[in-house]
Amino acid sequence: MDDGERLIHASSFGTAAASYAEHRPDYAQAAVRWALENAPGPRVLDLGAGTGKLTATLVAAGARVIAVEPDPAMLAELRRSLPAVRGLPGSAEAIPLPDASVDAVLAGNAMHWFDMAVAGPEIARVLAPGGLLAGLWNLVDDRVDWVAGLARAGGSAAIGPRDTPAGWRAGTAGAHLPKTGAPARFGSPEQAEFPHGQRRTADSLVATLATRAGMLVMPAGEREAALVRIRAFLARTPETARGEFTLPMLTGVLRVRRR
Questions:
Q1: Residue 40 DSSP SS3
Q2: Distance between the two ends of the chain, CA-based, in angstroms?
Q3: Residue 199: which region, alpha, beta or left (left: phi > 0; alpha: psi -120 to 50)?
């Protein structure tokens, strides 16, 4: 994906902010604890916070959270659902915080949108010495047969390579590095995966997949055709055809420390 496509995809979520807030999953609590392990303090920036899915998990974990989000519609949803959290307009490339003001920067399903040539120095600037940067991604577990079938039915716009365990590991191992060859601001990466799941019905899973960036930027006809294929697959699959089920997931974490 080139820079133009990345910008289009990254800016697509505001059109579906309410659906995103309703249907997107939260993050495994064990993943958040690991991401923050050995952070020098409790001050956490949720960067690219969206509607506050990761923010809420951080609050529950006892972190002192500030949320920064560039999209006004997404930020409005975050402020509505988490009024006690300080939510600020801003981006990874222009963080509205002072130097060394947080102990960890976390990004939930957002770090792949950052321009790390600019965002890397900005993140390093706001981190205290020894501070951590961690990206978290919710993955569908395509090692389960019916989930692999769902991925085939929906196509890469609904479930892309980075949305499954093997693809995530390869696709995010260098997510903290600038693509320009500039010096990295962070140390060696660590990756870990944590079991997770989301209770869904066929209808709510279709609604969840409809909030993926690849789906949101599709022409309307192609998008509806993809959703029809997904609905048909879920209707004929025993695990998903009747009532509620658990979508098998993992939360993957990439963690690096500020140099």
A1: coil
A2: 29
A3: beta
Q: What is the DSSP letter of 161?
A: G
What is the DSSP secondary structure assignment for residue 160, as one 8-state letter? -
Tokens describing residue 153 = 């039915």
Q: What is the rounded distance in angstroms from the CA atom of residue 123 to the CA atom of residue 183?
A: 14
What's this model's pTM, rounded to 2 decimal places? Answer: 0.88
CA-angle at 168, arms to 88 and 42, nearest 5°: 40
- Write out 191-243 in H/E/C secondary structure: EEEEEEEEEECHHHHHHHHCCCHHHHCCCHHHHHHHHHHHHHHHHHCCCCCCC
Closest of 5, 6, 56, 2 to residue 26, by C-alpha: 56
Burial of 9 (C-beta count, 10 Å sphere; 0-12/13-18/19+)? middle
61, amino acid identity: A
CA atoms of 191 and 207, how far apart (whole Å): 29
User: Three-state SS across 12-38?
Assistant: CHHHHHHHHHHHCCCCCHHHHHHHHCC
d(Cα 31, Cα 189) in Å, to the nearest integer?
Answer: 15
Give the C-alpha distances (Å, rounded to integers) separating 60 from 50, 82, 199, 259: 17, 12, 20, 29
**Residue-wise pLDDT tens for the chain (259 aa)?**
445 444 434 444 445 577 777 888 999 999 999 999 999 999 999 999 999 999 999 999 999 999 999 999 999 999 999 999 999 999 999 999 999 999 999 999 999 999 999 999 999 999 999 999 999 999 999 999 999 999 999 999 899 889 999 999 999 999 999 988 888 889 999 999 999 999 999 999 999 999 888 888 889 999 999 999 999 999 999 999 999 999 999 999 999 999 9
